Amino acid sequence: MHIPVVIIGGGPGGLACARVLAEAGRRVLVVERKNAVGSKVCAGGITWHGLISRVPAELIERSFPRQLIVTRRQRATVVAEQPMIATVNRFRLGQYMLEQARNAGAEVLNGWQLRGIKGRELEIEDRQNRQRQTISCDNLVGADGSCSMVRRHLGLDTCRLGIGINYQVAGQYPEMEWHLDSLFFKNGYGWIFPHRQTLSIGAYADRRSMNAKALKEQCLNWAGGLGFDLSQERGRAEYINYDYKGWSFRDTFLVGDAAGLASGLTGEGIYPAIVSGEEVAKTILDPGHNSVAMSRLIRHHRLHSCMVRLTANPILNTMIGEMMTFALHRGIIDFKRLEMAP
Question: Could you please report the per-residue DSSP string of 317-337?
Fold first, then answer.
């Protein structure tokens, strides 16, 4: 069976790519290994400059014009006229994007996994009954996350990874909080992101400064000090790839975490995934497409990666964190300038 475009991965990046292609009349198949699209370890935070204005109001859980930033020496509140960050349910967002892609005409195979790539031929397997099938394509899009098989097929290694651990617990909370405490998280951070009936409480760190086990222990200790006992809650962890080495490789493309486009500084991945997915689709439709959006996204990504390198030094980490928090509180730096959005 031949299908012009095959996308491996049904996350936000893969589905955004599929929608744009299908809307243009191109036949496209999304191969998603999970039985249901949408579920992923994710705090669910989306930025105003990035996605809030592009997501239907019914998908927004909570929105916040105020952000509380806590460091070892400060408690600073950043206030804006419009919401800076909102929270979404990652599963509901995935289902919404799946519906958009299918309504446009994209085909989606749930519960199928890529097993092999040989030239333009792909071997995929039904994970339930182990049935295998070979399909060929003109363009292959890797949207299969931080452990992307398509990325490995291109010969790209992955060294720069972040680790995110999230606990979704019942309850309500008044504010969205960011905790920049190097004693707990090195150059990472802890977060409290309120949703409608739950809280996302978690932490992010660069894998080179802290492994997953240490991050979990520190997250539990930090949260316990704030009155949240997470010891009986189920935490979920996932790697976040920010090792960007390109997105366009002739007839093969990478989007989102597969391309290493997540922010190494914050771990934000939803917005870069959607933008890169849309831009890959436009490039497949028009090989001469000049992607200004991707250029801006990559520029922001490099800035964030530079900040990660600088803050790996404990002294610089403390100094930069305190200075940026003070500048944000005083309005010297606009919160939007720290986002991944162009």
Answer: HHHHHHHHHHHHHHTSS-GGG
